[in-house]
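Methods — Computational structure assignment.
A single polypeptide chain was analysed. Its primary sequence is given first, followed by the predicted tertiary structure written as structure tokens.
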Amino acid sequence: MTIREKREVWENEYLSPLASKSAESKGRKHQSTSCDIRTEFQRDRDRITHSKAFRRLMHKTQVFISPEGDHYRTRLTHTMEVAQIARTIAAALHLNEDLTEAIALGHDLGHTPFGHTGEDALNQLLPDGFRHNEQSVRVVEMLENDGKGLNLTFEVTDGILNHRTSCSPATLEGKVVQISDKIAYMNHDVDDAVRAKILDPSDLPRFASDILGATPSMRIDFLVHNLVEYNLANPSQIALSPEIAKVMGDLRTFMFENVYVNQLHFKERIKIDKMLHLLFEHYMEHSHKLPLELQNRMDTSPESAVADYIAGMTDRFALKRFSEIFMPAAWRM
């Protein structure tokens, strides 16, 4: 019996009957030979972490654009924090930790430079709009690996696609990532906002600090315990208790009104929006400057090809390209 087969036996014996078992995966679009050591979900985790899109997350904005200081979250640190929270929950509920981790590590691969400001810009430019969860699937299915994609399992791809609140993942592991994403960004964004002096700790609504806790670590610990305890009483549900879900909703409203909308001055958001619009128009008119694999798609889906290129940029690469194209040589940084 191989190491992988022993792991598959362990999953069947130890994991919850509601958990996803790697040996029962719905498989990949393109059949591949199994590994003697790793399960299918472990292989997906490794494919994601070794991808170029994953490495680029370290230079993509989470909330704060080009922050001064080394301790603000980036897309990469956010992703790692989601994976840690999600694995803790999955372990407590005897769900598949490997599947949970793979979904968490891949859920934001399609995010644009400059956070949601960049996403809003591309959403205006594409005829059918732009949604980062769908772009994440494009990354793993057709953009990575020189256009061949990562050929992930159905379960991981489904979890990546459906990690947004309005979506419905096919697995409980996907639902764990969905709510872990909210737990992570809501609390860590508060931490970053305090560090940036946009919020004072005393600004946080009393209902949040009194109920959830006074620090990010206390709030995360409280929310994880609440979700696990609620699931133990309601085994088929991955959710916070209704009372705590309402508190989280109120905190989200507070963050949108006081941080997400006001984090950048209106003029700064306009600048980023204009920059991405100009880059988009430039590459639509000069498609020969795109990578070859994207040039080959200009005849069939030009807007999508250009959006794929821009969405894959890091913050600093987008600034570099803008400077090279639109700034006089003597003025470039």
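Note: Residues 267-331 form one domain.
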